[in-house]
Amino acid sequence: MKIKTIRAHELLDSRGNPTIEAVAVLENGSMAAAMVPSGASTGQHEALELRDGDPARYLGRGVLKAVAHVNDEIAPALAGMDVRDQKGIDQTMLELDGTAKKSRLGANAILSVSIACLKAGAVAEGIPFYAYVSTLLDPEPAGKFIMPIPMMNVLNGGKHAEGSADMQEYMIMPVGAPCIVEAVRWGAEVFHRLGKIIQDKSWPTTVGDEGGYAPPVKSNEEPLQLIMQAIEKAGYRPGEQVAIALDPAATELHVDNKYHLEKDGRKDLTYEQMVDLYEDWIRKYPIISIEDGLAEEDWSGFNHLMEETEGKIQIVGDDLFVTNAQRVRIGIWENAANSVLIKVNQIGTITEALETIKLAREHEMTCIISHRSGETELPFEADFAVGTHVGQIKIGSLSRSERVAEYNQLMRIERELGDRAEVATFRLRK
Ligand code: PGA
Ligand code: ZN
Question: Quick one: how far is CA 217 from the chain centroid?
Fold first, then answer.
């Protein structure tokens, strides 16, 4: 089925910032739309998100240039191509852009089209989006679909919630749930219990960018204590049924080669001291995964964390890898992590994101399909995670419609698949 045209326009994301939507129209008149998310604690090696920089519109955050690049350059270049040729479509855009970081056309322009075509490919084939995604992977997994275990960000800090913890994300993972529908219920119950605990302290129950509470905690450890209480009050066994995952987003804590934890009154921590802190917490709490525990250039720190935790914990690279296969290769060489966070907008095309997933798999690293802190109302990660069979997904808390939209989509997919859905088990490959 051939692409007739592609149209783009400017809309808003969940933070009220402009983002781009692309609509791929096929020759038979069917179409599919995609919107692009946006990060706040972005990695310096990410592909470039093109913003207009015109202070007269949206404080310089408009995306009309990216929109024009889709309408004037990308659309004519792709018209007439088979929409199922995802590699060819992405390659054409890479050549048209011609830069290493997609800085001419903008990674937001390119990605909006890459996802719109992916979705339109599913429409052309007449199969669900997740099923279509699975056909792009080689070898195509047969029969069952692996439902991903969610990482639920119930307490937000860092750049996603001013006044809360310095560390960005305190997540729960319902590792013991028999299916997604139950996992979502368990998560929502723990989230609401946490809300009650925060309310009982007479703290505000406002939420951060990813829908987790953002209370004025006194230390970076306090959220862990609150979450433990919430898990127990909700009637679940910590660790066995509901475990904890962290994303300190430590690049944001790293100043002049030292780590700063303002809430703890601790400045100038070395990477060894950060790793000591994590080890202490791992002993006290059921933490099974730490993402960006060190800063994006601190390969030695990441390696130290890997060695000290001896593969018992999932060590995830987000800003460290930026979904970029080249960076993952360095990470493998440095033994810096055993897991790769996959955010399609860090790299800018579906084809490159799939290549990064394949590379990670070849090296026995786990992958987590992830949203961004600035999201849209069109679900994407749920289908992408089921279709890629990675077994884990990170889509925020159990509040705010742009987050809940992904949980709802996961539940729809599981119900549609029936016996063919199998929930992943949390297993470290290395
Ligand atoms: P971001 O944060 O989308 O603001 O970059 C998410 C994360 O660090 O995982
Ligand atoms: Zn992160």
Answer: 25
pTM of the model: 0.98
Taking the CA of 343 as reference, the closest ligand is 1
pLDDT tens-digit map of 362-372: 999 999 999 99
Q: Is 19 in the pocket of ligand 1 (CB under 6 A)?
A: no
Centroid of ligand 2 to alpha carbon of 292 (angstroms): 6
Q: According to DSSP H, which parts of 299-400 are helical?
A: 299-309, 325-334, 344-347, 350-362, 381-388
Ligand (nearest to CA of 394): 1
Q: What is the 3-state secondary structure (H, E, C) of 20-44?
A: EEEEEEECCCCEEEEECCECCCCCC
The answer, yes or no, to whether residue 316 has pLDDT greater than 50, is yes
- Given a cut of 70, whether residue 139 has pLDDT beyond it is no
Q: Is the CB of 372 under 6 A from ligand 1?
A: yes
Cα(403) to ligand 1 centroid in Å equals 14
Cα 319 to ligand 2 centre (Å): 6
Query: What six digits make up the tokens of 278?
Result: 């994590």
List active site positions: 210, 343
User: What is the CA(160)–ligand 1 centre distance, in A?
Assistant: 8
CA distance 165 to 429: 31
Element (H, E) at 267: strand 266-269
3-state secondary structure of 343: coil
Q: Is the CB of 156 under 6 A from ligand 1?
A: no
Contact 318, 291 (CB under 8 A): yes
Beta bridge partners of 169: 156, 247
Spatial separation of the C-alpha atoms in residues 138 and 122, rounded to whole Å:
17
**How far apart, in Å, do the first and last CA atoms of the chain sit?**
42
* Angle, in degrees to the nearest 10, between helices 350-362 and 325-334: 20
Mean pLDDT of 87-111: 98
Q: Is the CB of 41 under 6 A from ligand 1?
A: yes
